[in-house]
Write a structure and sequence with these properties.
Length: 275
């Protein structure tokens, strides 16, 4: 399936309505979310009745703006054929349930959805227009509290005075990210990095490159020893060396490290369109 990146017309059956903020109540086919509140990474099941039942009909999930509008001309965040996959479907599906989850996330580039409000649509892409047959009521994805991602330690060993935290739990895309740290065994070579929140799973060895990083003195060119401070990624600071700036929506952690050894890991924080 190739979702059209430029669509001159979006048609909502049986009426042609405005692209944004259309009402789903006039549509003949039906689509609904089995649960209207989900935690991040929780499976999302969509029930549908498709009166058109064409082989290339699909179900997609879209972000809902604060004013309740949905841009159905854009590519969906997640999508599946009405048979429940992105492969080949046998026949035309008149009704059923499709499920978006970690079990089919190898096809879902935006999985898991970040916290926010969403809708699902039942649609078909023609050569020059997208036809939307039905849309769900708004549903919400909320944050979860995952297991601690702090580095492992030997319980019999004394705890070293390392700490790191982010100023906010949620940042709007492109907003500056402030990270406060304490490193009482400071030396040259300590640095702060931003990673996806699954970078450390009960281990203190870092295996991946950071999305962004600076020395604890606040840049990639300084060499002073800093025991405690706040460093800022983005904002009015130089971003030419932050090669993943701005961060795309998702869940992240900040890490205080020396070499490839994590000294402390922050609680997860979110980056999204609206906080």
């Amino acid at each position: 399936m190739r979702l059209l990146s430029s669509i001159s017309q979006v048609l909502f059956l049986p009426l042609t309505l405005s692209l944004l903020g259309f009402s789903h109540k006039a549509l003949a086919s039906r689509i609904s979310v089995e649960n209207y509140s989900h935690h991040e990474n929780e499976a999302i099941s969509i029930s549908f009745t498709d009166t058109t039942a064409m082989a290339a009909n699909w179900i997609g999930i879209y972000w809902e703006e604060e004013d309740g509008t949905v841009d159905a001309s854009a590519d969906p965040l997640l999508w599946l054929w009405t048979c429940g996959n992105q492969g080949t479907c046998d026949g035309m599906i008149e009704s059923g349930v499709v499920t978006f989850s970690k079990h089919n996330s190898d096809h879902l580039l935006k999985w898991p959805l970040v916290a926010g409000n969403y809708v699902a649509i039942l649609a078909h892409d023609y050569a020059v227009k997208r036809t939307v047959f039905a849309m769900t009521e708004s549903f919400v994805v909320t944050t979860t509290s995952p297991p601690s991602l702090a580095p492992s330690s030997n319980p019999s060993a004394p705890m070293l005075p390392y700490s790191i935290s982010v100023q906010d739990e949620c940042y709007v895309v492109s907003n500056a990210i402030s990270v406060t740290f304490e490193n009482n065994n400071a030396d040259v070579g300590a640095w702060i990095g931003i990673f996806w929140d699954d970078i450390l799973q009960y281990t203190d060895e870092i295996g991946d490159e950071p999305l962004m990083w600076v020395w604890t003195c606040g840049s990639q060119t300084c060499n002073s020893i800093v025991e405690r401070d706040t460093v800022v990624f983005g904002g009015n600071q130089r971003v030419d060396y932050l090669f993943q700036w701005p961060l795309m929506p998702g869940r992240f952690v900040a890490v205080l490290a020396r070499g490839m050894h994590a000294l402390a890991v922050s609680e997860p924080f979110r980056v999204q369109g609206v906080c």
